[in-house]
Amino acid sequence: MVRRALFTSVALAPLVVLVHYVVHPTETVEFVLAAAALIPLAWLIGEATEHAAEHTGPGIGGFLNATFGNAPELIIALFAVNAMEFEVVRGSLTGSVVGNLLLVLGFSLVFGKGSEGIDRPSSFLSLGLVAITTLLLLITSIPSWHGDPERDSIVNLSIPVSVVLLVAYVVLTWYSLRRHAALHMSSDEEIEGWSLRLALVVLGLATVVTALVAEILVGSINTFAEDSGISEFFLAAVVIAIVGNAAEHGGAVVVAARGKIKLAVEIALSSSAQVAVFLIPAVALLALLIEPLALALREVEIAALALSVVIASILLADGKSSRLKGLILIVAYVGIATMFFVAGER
């Protein structure tokens, strides 16, 4: 039923693009429609990636999952860079890491079937990568707390930090990605698989449409923020981050509901680590071709990342899952989202 609804709702994306160019609605309406359209698109990209991985094997499948699973977030970030909405870029990426660590993991544990063991080495590898990212981002963030956060000196600092993070990603997560892809394929629903050609065609088309919808979303965020009285930072760190991670969010919860807590935890934590050590530096380096981006996180963003790692580490330390732990993670996310709301603009 859910899959059928998601397949049907994919039609909303081309409709949003058509409405944008033909009807020209208000930007507030466009933001809401574009955000809603990105959810089934993110799911479709994840679905096509899994089917492609069935044909390519775990190694290439892991690469596809890492690349295209984060495609909506990457596309949104690059359009925001082009629009010089740097706070939106940083907020959406920070919110994505925090959302995976607390919200996705929390709902996965809540929908799981009681206490079950998790893979502690893999889990703490992912948590360690997020912790390392947080520490390295202090190098570029602390100087930005005084003066212009977009100044050239901070942009220049962001380049070596991004390179170090990408190297850490390649060196430390290769095994994790291969293993994640293999587990993810084995957990797929019992449906007739797509051919490799069909999966790649759907993947390509979904990515193109995602780019068009993301451009509409970014272009309308200013007006929506003004009309709603909500800061762009909060919209980016909470709303856009959740929308961009729809594939991982839904996938982890569905897997958990089927009783595979270990896999659900793997998806949530691996996704968080991928955003931290791959997507953040990748966006920073690609931005050099568009508009230089400083990895100048605010105090509230650094605090949110650190708190998320600490809370998740404490709750997973014994290697066991429980619904109570899931509820604690969700409450922690609500608390951090409230921090983002109160913080407002820089």
How would you explain this protein's 3D organization?
This protein has 346 residues and is an all-alpha fold. It has 14 helices and no strands. It has one domain. 80% of the residues lie in helices and 0% in strands. It starts with a helix and ends with a helix. About 2% of the residues have low confidence.
Separation, N- and C-terminal Cα atoms: 43 Å
Shape: globular
Number of strands: 0
Would you tell me the overall average pLDDT?
83
CA radius of gyration: 19 Å
Number of domains: 1
The proportion of residues forming helix, as a percent range, comes to: over 70%
SSE layout:
Layout: H1 2-9, H2 12-22, H3 27-56, H4 58-68, H5 71-82, H6 86-111, H7 120-141, H8 152-186, H9 196-228, H10 232-244, H11 246-257, H12 261-286, H13 299-316, H14 323-343
Helix pairs in contact: 2-3, 2-9, 3-4, 3-9, 3-10, 3-11, 4-8, 5-6, 5-9, 6-10, 6-11, 6-12, 6-13, 6-14, 7-8, 7-12, 7-13, 8-12, 10-14, 11-12, 13-14
